Every structure is written in C-alpha cells, then in structure tokens.
Amino acid sequence: MDNAIYATLTRQSGLMREMRTVANNIANVSTTGFRREGVIFSEYLSGLEGNEPSLSMARAHGRMIDRSQGGLTQTGGVFDFAIEGEGFFMIETPQGNQLTRAGSFIPSAAGELLTPDGYRLLDSGGTPVAIPSGASSVALAADGTLSNNGQPIAQVGVYLPTDPNGLRHVGGTRFTAEAGAEPVEGAVLMQGFLEDSNVDPVTEIARMIEVQRAYEMGQAFLEREDERIRSVIQTLAR
Asked: Could you tell me if 39 and 221 are in contact, meaning their C-beta atoms sit under 8 angstroms apart?
C-alpha cells in the first residue's frame, strides 16, 4: 500500500475514534458524576530507503480520563452525596469493586445504600454501608462519617487509584483501577448535593467540528489518490 495512503488511513481511524469519544461526552453532558474522556494520539516517525523523506504516522494510542471537578447541584436528598476534590466512591459490582463519582444512593430493604443500578456503596474498610432500621435523622459529615441522631453508624469511603494512569472506564460513570485503589484521608463530602458532569458542551462541540473537518480533509485526499491511481492504471492498460 502507498505510504501516504497508509498514513492517512491510520490518521482517519484515530479521528473516527476521537469523534465517537467526543459524541459520547456530549451525550453525557447532563449525566451525574460523568467524567469527560479524550483520545491520546502518538506520532511515529519511520525512515525510508534512499533519499526519501521520513514517514510520519499518527494513531490513537489510548484514552484520557479528565478527573477535574464538576459543578455541584444541591438536591436536598438525604442520600445524595458529592465529593469536593479528589477521590471516588467505591461500589461493589459482580465484576469486582469499581469507582464512581455519581453519588446518588437509595437504601435497600435491608438498609444498604445502593446506586440506582443496584450496586452497594462501600465504606472506608470495604464493607457495604448500611442504615439501621428506623433511622430518622441521617447526617453525613464532611469527613464521610455517617450518623443517625448524632450516633456514628458508618464511614463512607473515598478512594483514589494507586496508579492514576490505571483508571479504566468500564461503562456509564463507573471505573476500575487496574493497580487497586486506596482510601483517601482528608476528602470532603457533602450531603444533599450531586456532582454534575465535568463536560463543557461548548468545548466539545468545537472539538467535534475540528475533528470533522480534519476527517473530511483526509477523506478528500484519499479520493484524490484513488482517482490518481485509477488514471495511472488506465493509462498503462492502453
């Protein structure tokens, strides 16, 4: 395959991947606790034979998770929690413990706090957080201490991945930490608040336009190359 065509196809593949990522960001601009994602490109330079110039290829190398703070919305919900600053809630799923910034929880019939999709919230020791039957005045302190009528009943855990580069998006607002996660000290929690998505729609739409234009330029180049090759073949066939 012609080097220029190969390099362009590699770039087009990366741009397509970035377009899907930007579209997913825009789709989740209103999703509680959603973390914006980006695509990381790598450039490869390869020397060619003779006096030919080197070949440069860029391809999508991986995804970047934007961990910046999202806005906080006051809901007044007793079991709506938000983290201000670094850290994630730990939840228990069938695929293992996962991290999330989406802090909307619902007490189950057994009193355990669950995410809307049914996963249990874990405390700082990795045990499910449970609310005693008949609890009437549940309060969350800034340090994560959960109490009822002034009596401590649990410590909501806030965790950080041991390796910040090992954070992987597994779906929705949930992540896994490949190297594990450790409790964070000094985290600030807020009761009656939820964290918004950290996606800036204006920035994402501007990026989508840039990616679309870059993709169209690459597509036009491929079409011109296709016409050129066809013309050469027709000329040689005469």
From this structure: no
